[in-house]
Amino acid sequence: MAVHYATCLGFAYDSPTVEFPVRTGPGTTFDLAPFKISKGTTNLEVLDVQPDVQNTMSDLGRVYNWFKLKFPNGQIGWMRGHVIGIVGDFTTYGYGVLNELKHEYTLTRGPIPVATPAAATPAAQPAAPSATPQAVETAKTQQETQKELAKAAAAQQTAAPAQPAAQPAGQPAPQPAPQPAPTLQGAWQPIRPTTPAIARIKLQSAAKIRNMPTTSGSSVLVTIPRDSTVKIVQVGPDSGGMYHRWFKVEANGQVGWVREDLVSVEGDGESLGLPWDLYPAPMANRWWVRGWNMPPQLDPNAIGGQHDGWDFGAATGEPILAGPAGGLVVKTVDCLKCTPDRPNTPAHGLGLGNPAVFQDPGWGFGYGTYVIVGYSHDKLPNSTKAALAQRGYPGGSIFVMYAHLQRRMVNEGQQLAPNQQIGTCGNTGNSEATHLHLEIRASASDRFTGWAEIRRGVMDPVVLFSR
After folding, report:
1. For residues 278 and 379, is the Cβ–Cβ distance under 8 A?
2. CA-to-CA distance for 6 and 145, rounded, in angstroms?
């Protein structure tokens, strides 16, 4: 059996606490051990992992897990997982494979693999001792909790490919068996719509239909509320020279113009030059907040100036989904300075856009908690492939960042199923309200070399996503 080791990381946020208690069982109802463990202690041998016997839940809405550990002093005791870090192959305990040290507090525990039972021998076996009522109740609670965790993990498909287990310091790690590269599940085949294109209003309140395709010097003809649909009759450029395109639409008996980024397109718009095969927006319940705004067509009047992606508003906890052809998780980052009561920089007195935040890995470089998913060329819509070729990336891939998450639900190296949930919408990092920052970067290769390394490939997400 592989030996698993943990590290005492302390709390997943700034805290002066550097020593942590040890208990005699998996819950705060058990007695305290006569010693504590200091933050930074490594090589804690993991003997078992069990859910809290009282089903005590963390502020992330999950039952705490407790780690039975063998400590450097040779004694054995239990510590709650919210101060424990793990790395390596923890599939045995339901965490899958972790390629870097992670706080257990941020992880979703999955099902525990069931070993194949050995063949029974004819020799008589000694009778098992009778369980005490307390032990029976504890086992029952643990079984119920494990069932719930297993259901959630199965639905989210959080299993990751096997990797070598973490090794204690001073001991050479065994050479892992070669692992096959993640395989593709087949090219995506979108179904062409049978209805003409319409525009659905995606602002939180309402959109203004104008008499000209520009916000400069135009007048408002009519206001259309959120989720209303209007017929698209023409697509044209911004008459003021800005980056945005405009849709000429029929609304409430009037014909006017609405800016493209304020609506989502549904139906077949190929005759208007609008692709019909794009990925759907990654959240079902959303509203438009902010769009792409980059030189040389930078709109000086846009909110916040230059912006590398899209921002979707949503309720905290709204599910965020991967693309309809699946993908490969190439990077995950948990915001270590984000806490449930103070998840973002303004709450810590730093304010939006503080330059120090963008250099700080504790803030996820401003992105908070985020996931980057790679979509290889054969998973992309034909319209996206054509756009990539036109921009100098024939056969290229797209990497998508989903940022400011409340929490992530996938691990690095994980092959995703179509439309799999990868996290929940949040307000972490350089943020002042719950939203998803969606940013894409193209690369000539499907091998992820780093987010900064593919900076030149940043593109308007309209290349891949509908709004």
Report:
1. no
2. 23
Report pLDDT for 421.
93
Across 37-51, 182-196, 328-342, the highest mean pLDDT is recorded for: 328-342
For the segment 359-399, what is each residue's pLDDT rounded down to a tens digit? Answer: 899 999 999 999 999 999 999 999 999 999 999 999 999 99
Q: What is the 3-state secondary structure (H, E, C) of the chain?
A: CCCEEEEECCCCCCCCCCEEEEECCCCCCCCEEEEEEECCCCCEEEEEEEECCCCCECCCCCECEEEEEECCCCCEEEEEHHHEEEEEEEHHHCCEEEEEEEEHHHCCCCCCCCCCCCCCCCCCCCCCCCCCHHHHHHHHHHHHHHHHHHHHHHHHCCCCCCCCCCCCCCCCCCCCCCCCCCCCCCCCCCCCCCCECEEEECCCCEEEEECCCCCCCCCEEEEEECCCEEEEEEEEECCCCCCCEEEEEEECCEEEEEEHHHEEEECECHHHCCCCCCECCCCCCCEEEECCECCCCCCCCCCCCCECCEEEECCCCCEEECCCCCEEEEEEECCCCCCCCCCECHHHCCCCCCCCHHHCHHHHHHCCEEEEEEECHHHCCHHHHHHHHHCCCCCCEEEEEEEEEEEECCCCCCEECCCCEEEEEECCECCCCCEEEEEEEEECCCCCCCCHHHHHHEECHHHCECC
- For tokens 């100036």, what's the residue? 305
Per-residue model confidence as pLDDT tens digits over 409-451: 999 999 999 999 999 999 999 998 999 999 999 999 999 999 9
Q: Cβ contacts of residue 191 below 8 Å, gap of 6+?
A: none
pLDDT at 164 over 50: no
Sign of the alpha-carbon torsion through 257, 263, 269, 275? positive
Q: How many Å apart are CA 27 and CA 381, to the nearest integer?
A: 50
Q: How far apart are CA 361 and CA 140, in angstroms?
A: 41
Per-residue CA distances from 320 to 122, 340, 435 (Å): 54, 19, 11
- Distances 418 to 54, 186, 379, 398, 422 between C-alpha atoms, Å: 36, 11, 10, 16, 11
